[in-house]
Design brief:
Helix 1 links the parallel strand 1 and strand 2. The strands form two sheets. A seven-stranded parallel sheet has the order 4-3-2-1-5-6-7, with helices on both faces. It has a two-stranded antiparallel sheet with strand order 8-9. Helix 1 runs parallel beside helix 2, helix 1 crosses helix 6 and helix 3 crosses helix 4. The longest helix is centred in the first third of the chain and has 16 residues. The protein is α/β, with parallel strands linked by helices. It has one domain: Rossmann fold (3-Layer(aba) Sandwich). The chain contains six helices and nine strands; from the N terminus they run E-H-E-H-E-E-H-E-H-E-H-E-H-E-E. This is TIGR00725 family protein. It holds the Pfam family LDcluster4. It comes from Selenihalanaerobacter shriftii. InterPro entries: CHP00725, LDcluster4, LOG_family_nucleotidases.
Amino acid sequence: MSIRVGVIGKSGKISKEVKKKAYQVGKEIALKKGILLSGGRDGVMEAVSKGAKEHGGFTVGIMPGLTQEDANDYLDLALTTGLGFDIRSNVLIRSSDVVIMINGGNGTFNEVSSAYLLSKPVIVFEGTGGWADKIKDITQEGKYLDKRKNIELKYEDSAIEVVNLAFKCAPKKSNKFDQGKVI
């Protein structure tokens, strides 16, 4: 069963460096046969989707609106929710097995908080700016968002290592069929 990797990050204009790093993350997810989930729009979401799509990956955008007009061109499936940004983000996080944070503003920070509350593994791509480069400074012991210590935020600074760690941290999936029997 494929790992569902949620990639969260800044929408809108991003630097060429961040675009390149996000593209590389998408590529690595595709090469590992993961399913890429994102917010489906522009910025980090578009760059990561392009990287995955151009390397044979399957890309899903969880869209905030009821139409596909804001969907980027690299999605296999633009899932329109009509839920707005905040609730759409919750659907994205709940649908992901593991989350990768690239750059990001307030919406991305909200998604990390949701992942933390749901005990979803979060890998922070350091060196991409935004909250990805600030979050360690506000955490407890550099890895927890609060005293509950639900999960440790993990950090890497290269696309290959970010994706390798994401696949390592994702919960192990088992097929519901074991020798033809439902278990």
